Task: structure prediction
Amino acid sequence: QNNLRTCFMGREIIYLPETASTQIVAMEMARKGAGDGTVIITERQTDGHGRLKRLWVSPQGNIYMSFILRPSQTEISRLIMAASLAISFAIQDTTGIMTELKWPNDILINGKKVCGMLVENDIRDGQVNFSVVGLGINVNADMQDYPELKDIATSLINHTGKPVSREKLILSFLHEFERLYLDLNEHGKCVFEMWKKRLITLGKEVDVTSGKDIYSGIVETVASDGSLKIRLADGNLVHIVAGDVSLRHA
Ligand code: ATP
Result:
C-alpha cells in the first residue's frame, strides 16, 4: 500500500482468496455503510456474473474486483466511462498494449474481450444510494483453455507471452480511476470525449437485443450520457440505454 498514489480509491482493500462474487460482497458491505473507494479483490470467483446475469468465467491468475462508490447524479452516467478509460490506460501503461472500448462495458484487444465491467446502482427514493463497479480483467490465465470463450476472449498473457504484474496493473488502475472519477464533476465532458474517441462501436453495424426484440442497424451517435442512437434499416432511429440491451457487432 506504500506505492498507492490515491486519496480514497483502494485505500480500504478487502482481499479474499476466493469468493462467489466480489460484486455480491461489495453490495452487502455498501449497504452496511462501507466507505467510498472500498474495494473487494479476489483470486477467483465461483459464481461471477456479467450483465443480464451472464456467467463470468473467473479462473486463478486474473483480477476480479468491485468498488463501492457514492456518485452524484451527474457522475453516475459517466461512471462506466471513467472506469473503462482507467482500465485502458492502466493496461497501456503496464504492458504497452492498446485496447478498444466496446459499448457499453467491454474492453477488447484486437476484437476479443480482455475485460468486462458491471455497474450496479442501489436506488432509494429515486436517488442513487450507492454504486458498485465490478471488473473482471483477464491477466495471466490462458483464455484459450476455455473452448466456449476461445474466439471471443483474450488475456494479457496471451499477448505478452510472459506474466503481467497484477499489482502494477491494479496500482495504475486505482490511480487513473480516482483521477478520472474526480474529473467527472468538473471535466465530465472531457472524460466523455476521451471515452468516445476510443469507442469502436460508432458507425458499426450492430444487433441490439432488448427484451424479446432484436433491432439491426448502424450506430449513428453516442450521447454524452453514454446512450446510443441506432439507425435501423427502415430509416427509423432508436435510442438505446445500456441497462437492458445486449449488443452484437456484425
Ligand atoms: P456481450 O459479451 O454479448 O458483448 P456483454 O458485454 O453484456 O455481452 P457481459 O454480460 O458483460 O457481456 O459478460 C458476460 C459474457 O462475457 C458471457 O456471456 C461470455 O460470453 C463472456 N465471458 C464470460 N467470462 C469471460 C471472461 N473471463 N473473459 C471474456 N469474456 C467472458
In short: The mean pLDDT is 94. The domain at 13-198 is CATH 3.30.930.10 (BirA Bifunctional Protein; domain 2). The first strand starts at residue 13 and ends at 19. The chain has five helices and twelve strands.
